[in-house]
Every structure is written in C-alpha cells, then in structure tokens.
Amino acid sequence: MFIKNKKLARILSSVLGLILVVIPIYLVFAQGVDITPVSPPNQQGPINSPEEFISLLRQILTWLATIFWIASIIFIFWAALNYLLARGDEEKADKAKKMLQYAIIAIVIGLMAYAIPTFVENFLRAR
C-alpha cells in the first residue's frame, strides 16, 4: 500500500470511485440525446389461444414427468443397492427406506404432471 494513513487511503479510494461512477453518468446525460420509447411491433405473442397454451403446458409437463420418471428409477435402484449393502446396519437400512419413499413421491409427482393439463384445460374452457 502506497499510502500509510488508512483514513486518507479510504477517502482517496472513495473519491476515485465516485469519480469513476459520476463522470460516465454525466457524459451519458450530457449528450442531450432525445430518448423516445420504441413501441413494439403489432404482432401477436407466441401463444394466441387457450389450445396453444394447453399444448405448450402439456409439452413442458411431459418433459418434467420424464425427468421425474428417470429420477425415480435411479432412486429405486440406488435405494435397493444401499439396502443390499446395509448388511444389517439399521441406520443404512432406514436411509435406503427413506430413499425408496422419495422415489415413490417422484412417481406420484410424475403421475400428477399428466393430470395438471386436463385440470387447466377444464378451468380455461369453463370461462
């Protein structure tokens, strides 16, 4: 450190930081450019009807369900392997049982992913 006085070093670094922040902001606003908002083009969005929304929702939830199915299969095999390797150790066996419970929860969530679009479709069509 070049400056031995810590207070002076803090003051100088604060002033330098302020200069590095304030001068570019001043230069930007000193240009006097008229900033007018740009209106978006008159195009419709990617989703134009409830059917397209339901289709997109079905695609997303199908991917999520696939991920959950794969995760649940991996957890089931992992839990089975941990249960086999427990060799009578109660803590390891309990851990394997909890992993199996999480795999079952993943299966339930995967099943729900197929039902959610139907509920949303019924809700949107009721209005």
How would you describe this protein?
The chain has 127 residues and is mainly alpha-helical. The chain has two domains: 1-32; 50-125. It has three helices and no strands. It has helices spanning 6-30, 50-86, 90-125. α2 (50-86) runs antiparallel to α3 (90-125). The protein starts with 5 loop residues before the first helix and ends with a helix. The model has no long low-confidence stretch (mean pLDDT 77).
Shape: flat
Percent of residues in β-strands: under 5%
By secondary-structure content and strand pairing, the structural class works out as mainly alpha
Distance between the termini: 70 Å
Offer a concise description of the structure.
It is built from three helices and no strands.
List keywords for this structure.
single chain; 127 residues; mainly alpha; 2 domains; 3 helices; 0% strand; flat
Q: Topology of this protein?
A:
Blueprint: H1 6-30, H2 50-86, H3 90-125
Helix pairs in contact: 2-3
